[in-house]
Structures are given as C-alpha cells and as structure tokens.
C-alpha cells in the first residue's frame, strides 16, 4: 500500500492501490503491519528499468536469506517490559504487555526475529509501586542485560526508574505514561536514553482546555489525585487555563485508593463549575463520576486518557455516559495497519474489547520502533540502538500512526497534539466525540514538530 502525501497537510492518507508506473512489492502475511516495514526494500519509481528491478529484487532475496539462515540462532535479543499487571493500573499494564507481545510475535513469526535472533521479552510486573519499579529497572539493566525496555505506565514508577536506564545506557521507550516530568528530568542531559511514544500531560491538558472552551465551558473544577501523575496534570491544566486568562474555580485533591469524593463534589458544585476535569487513573476517575452523579449535577466531565479504560467505564456504570477524554487511539476501524492491529489483538487474546486500547496500540508501536532501530543499527547493543532511535531513516507503520523520524537528538517525544482526538463514552464504549475526528481515523496523522522542551 502506498500513501499519497499532501505537502500542506500534517497527515498521510492511505490509498488501496499504488499509482501506475510505480513498482511496489507487498508482503503477504496474516498481519500486514510488519510487511509494511519491509516494503521500502523493494520500491522504485523507475519501473521501466529492468536493471533496477533485478538489482533490488536480488538485494531483497539476500536480506531474506540472511534472516532465514540464522533464524534459529541460540541467542536472543532481550527487550524488557515494565508495567503494572495487578491493581488499579492493571488495565493499562496488561494492555501494554499484550500489545508489545503481539508485535514481538509478529516479528519473530514473520521475519524470524531481527539480525537472525528472536526477540525475547523479559516481562516484569512493577505493580505501579515506585520502589518495585526501581528494582525492576535495575534488574532489567544489570542482570537481564536487555537491549532496550518498553513500558512505564505510572509517572512515579518512571521517575524512580530513569536513573537505572540512564546510568546503564539502555534505551527506555515509554509507551504509556504521559507524565511530562519524565522527559524534562533528563532533557538537559546531552546524551539521554529516555524516549516516549505517548502523549505527554502538557499536550493533553492544552487539548482538553481548548475542547472545553469550544463548548462555551469556562468555569472548570479540577479533580487531581496526589500522585506524581495527578500533580503533573494539575500543573499543566492550570498553565493551559492561564494562557486563556482563566483559573480553576475549584481544585480537589485526593489519594489513590479513595472510595468516596462526596465532599469534594459538593464543594465543586457550590463553586458554580460548568465542567469537571479529572486527572487520575481509571478506578479513582470512576469515584469522581459516581460522586458527581449522586449530586444530581448535570456537569460535563472531561479527563485525561485513563478515562478511556474499562475499569473507569465499567466502574462508573451510567455515570460515565457522555464523559469526554483525550486519546491517541480509538478501537474502531480506520487505516489498514490500525484495522489489522485490532483484529490481530482480538484474535490472539480472545477479547472483543481491549481494556486500555491506547496502551495496547502504543505498546505495539513501541516494539515496532525498537525493532526498526535494531535493524538500522545492525546491532543489539543498547548504545547503538539509542543512536538509531534518534535518526530513524525509514517510516514505521504503527497502529497509532506511521512514524516518520519520530525522534531526534533533542526531541524524544513521538506524539504531538495534532495526533490527539476527543473520545466520548457512549453506550459503554469509547466513540469519537467529533465527526471530524472520526473522519481523520482513515488517514495517518503525522507528527507536528514544536520547539523542544
């Protein structure tokens, strides 16, 4: 499948057939996503030249032969996975793990791995606990000798883990946590090893405030938990409001594990708020929604991406209906690679509904990004993989987007604000809130470059 690019647009719209006069080899496999990664090896606009045709086909055969001849090598390329698979954050952790595993299985099954070695995932449950997360990071770097790690769902766990990866010179690709401080912590370091393909707090806050204002909602009450994630989100919501010469009319804080927010909902209602903006994880967001509903308060609830998790939607019941949430991925039909990812996930894990679709999609994409970096580096050495990540020279077809130079030496964030869409809880599912977002899903949103932090 070829894509036509509009130079004046931020996205690339896929078309089902390549243009006449172009020669493109498509790879057939159960899932087309990985085949797209290899299509660049055999593509030419010089279809009229038999020499070019033969030369490129020969090169492809040599490449495929090299993979096949060493596919059963005894050693593997070890990639760490750190995520919470138990507790209130398990929806995102399990979804992330499954997305990474799906990509690794495709790489191992379709291409025989990378550099003649199978990808071996070293999966650890960090339990969303900062101390355990730090231990996991140290174990993956020092004992397991991973080439890279994918994961980090909780900002606190990330902050506790960064030094292990930085000091050990092992790339960490954060596929879930939106905490802006994770990037800021090492951004001033000339040679930092932390990358991310998740939308950071800052851009989600700006996006949600703008969506509230579009609806004429200006009196915003903020509910934020007291974790590092809640603290970061609150600071950026305040910043986004200040840029509009506004401030929250009410700020309510609460710890993770809270079971009632009746008092806080009463106080926020009394402030005259016409919108509630929630910044917390799924179970606690459900407490917010139910507490607001008990007030019989017809206020619009907005939230950061954890309000797209099943444990928010199921935990809230009818109180979740109509909630608006910032997401990079909605589990609905769209462009080819996205459709293939959804179908493959459902088949592999025997479920129609992904617990945290965005985490699964970003986990899948993270593994594909690491895979491409390994191929480009021609090495499984962490330092070389890191250098390749900063200068990826091939497009990478993912479930969220097709990544074209997602990182640079000074920019380690792959997701920009234009790639976000507004989701809505509708009949117990996440749907598109805006018709234009629903239409955009059939095209690939490209990263919009903004000044580095």
The portion of residues forming beta strands comes to: 15-25%
Uncertain spans, ≥5 residues at pLDDT below 50? 1-32, 35-74
Distance between the termini: 35 Å
Q: What profile does the largest beta sheet have?
A: 7 strands, mixed
Number of strands: 19
Average residue pLDDT: 83
Placed side by side, the strands forming the largest sheet appear as 11-10-12-13-14-17-18
Structural class category: alpha/beta
Fraction of residues in helix: 40-55%
Please state the overall shape, judged from the principal axes of the Cα atoms: globular
Radius of gyration: 22 Å
Number of helices: 15
Plain-language structure description:
The protein has 453 residues and is an alpha/beta fold. The protein has 15 helices and 19 strands. It has helices spanning 32-38, 50-69, 90-111, 130-143, 155-168, 180-187, 201-214, 228-243, 262-270, 282-294, 310-316, 336-349, 357-377, 382-389, 435-440, and strands at 3-5, 11-14, 23-24, 43-44, 76-83, 118-125, 148-151, 172-174, 194-196, 220-225, 250-254, 275-279, 300-303, 324-327, 396-397, 402-403, 421-426, 429-432, 444-445. The strands form five sheets. Strands 11-10-12-13-14-17-18 form a seven-stranded mixed β-sheet, with helices on both faces. Strands 6-5-7-8-9 form a five-stranded parallel β-sheet, sandwiched between helices. Helix 3 runs parallel beside helix 13 (357-377), helix 5 (155-168) packs parallel to helix 6 and helix 10 packs parallel to helix 11 (310-316). Mean pLDDT is 83; it is low at 1-32 and 35-74.
